[in-house]
Amino acid sequence: MKHEAARMSRNPFGKVAVLMGGRSAEREISLLSGNAVLGALLERGVDAHAFDPKEKNMADLKTEKFGRVFIALHGRYGEDGTVQGALELLGIPYTGSGVMASALAMDKWRTKLMWRAVGIPVPKDVLVHEASDWDAVARTLGLPLIVKPVHEGSTIGLTKVTTAKALPSAYALAAKHDRMVIAEEFIDGRELTASILGDTALPLIRIEAPQGNYDYQNKYFSDETKYHCPAGIEEKTEQVVRQAALHAFQVLGCEGWGRADLILRSDNTFSFLEMNTSPGMTGHSLVPMAARQSGLSFPDLVVQILEGAHVG
Question: What is the pTM of this model?
Fold first, then answer.
């Protein structure tokens, strides 16, 4: 009995499942994130185990007596409220945002509707479909512009379009990934990301991608993409952006941790693009980078996120 009590005091989380892989288009990245999280938890003495919802039934979490879940899934069926709902039905505490905030943040169009309503700056956009008047879309948003799926992450299905004639093919690519497609004003400026941990906005990171193209390859696999933290912007601007990011996070009802992506113009105005409620935790990932700048190691970051696990 004493031995069991001592073991629990060293590991207050009980048996922990790290959800990774899954069925989304971001499965490959999720496996990288999940294994990094798993390694950090094991390093800290946590009784952690890999759990892939594509390979196992979610009900197994209950039968295998997992007491807590770290969600390292990205994209659909992991970041969109579905897994969160299943875990609430099972009564198992999980990391990150709840059902509503996860579903809302995964929907780029509705996220922007919410942000716009409370005065958070976002790019102009238009929902498009196969029969859209592409010349009118180009006139409304200007060129170049961005076409992307509403419910995908990691720049999957995204195209930067420079002529109205290229819009139908950009739409077709995005529509392969989602029934909802958005055309969005292109904001010229510096690409920033603002990580949120609890009720704190961490130091900003400025992203410098080859040819300014921060696509899937450059985001996760290229060593040419440069990340600057500190971001190299004025301190006053940094603080304004960080507070705005925290507000954007809270307005959506997000919890635990997340990451907001935005563009900073040359005149120091900015526009938010999206909110990620289960960000990457790979070797190229940005939340761990911002945490390090704040003096928080990767294992400590992972444990702090796990401490915030909740039901509902």
Answer: 0.92
